[in-house]
């Protein structure tokens, strides 16, 4: 299938029980930092129109894999394609939203000014900016300087900027760190609403109670993929109802293999 045909096919795919294709394909990906392999031959896929969780302890390679998917990571070997295009290609610039761990907004601008700036880059106006601000629960803080906000509010401001272009793929690197439980629940509801509307989401986390909210999980440890399935299937395979225990059992299997 030619790239234009692939894009057309993927644009017709919707989540929420419709046909599911592969939004991201990673094949034999190796990334080195110095003389150390950070990613060791990872192969995986991320289905369209779903929330896929990237789960693993700190230092396991989650952020490196995410950077490779959005096309800002130098790789030694292997390939990453997003909707049939090489990761980081010009064709993907308006279709991929990326929220980093550190808030990627301007501290000396207000929330509204930040979001309207990103809206202008997409050729959008004030109504779209206000909608994105409202979606992340920052309506009351829209006129405040980002530098005066709490860490959680700054993270939400970054998310609003990522949502402004209505991306087909939304990549979020630990987006709920530092947020209170109520706000975390609200954001996860938003993530699933986006997926139901057809957006593909990849969400990294090291928080086990968030893993169960995902449609599918990629388990990563020491740069290797050790699990790729639904939360229910991972628990069933491990013979436990506790997802954290299932993850630990999978690690033990890898150590003794």
UniProtKB/TrEMBL annotation:
<dbReference type="GO" id="GO:0005524">
    <property type="term" value="F:ATP binding"/>
</dbReference>
<dbReference type="InterPro" id="IPR017871">
    <property type="entry name" value="ABC_transporter-like_CS"/>
</dbReference>
<keyword id="KW-0547">Nucleotide-binding</keyword>
<dbReference type="InterPro" id="IPR003593">
    <property type="entry name" value="AAA+_ATPase"/>
</dbReference>
<keyword id="KW-0067">ATP-binding</keyword>
<protein>
    <submittedName>
        <fullName>ABC-2 type transport system ATP-binding protein</fullName>
    </submittedName>
</protein>
<dbReference type="GO" id="GO:0016887">
    <property type="term" value="F:ATP hydrolysis activity"/>
</dbReference>
<dbReference type="Pfam" id="PF00005">
    <property type="entry name" value="ABC_tran"/>
</dbReference>
<dbReference type="InterPro" id="IPR027417">
    <property type="entry name" value="P-loop_NTPase"/>
</dbReference>
<feature type="domain" description="ABC transporter">
    <location>
        <begin position="24"/>
        <end position="247"/>
    </location>
</feature>
<dbReference type="InterPro" id="IPR003439">
    <property type="entry name" value="ABC_transporter-like_ATP-bd"/>
</dbReference>
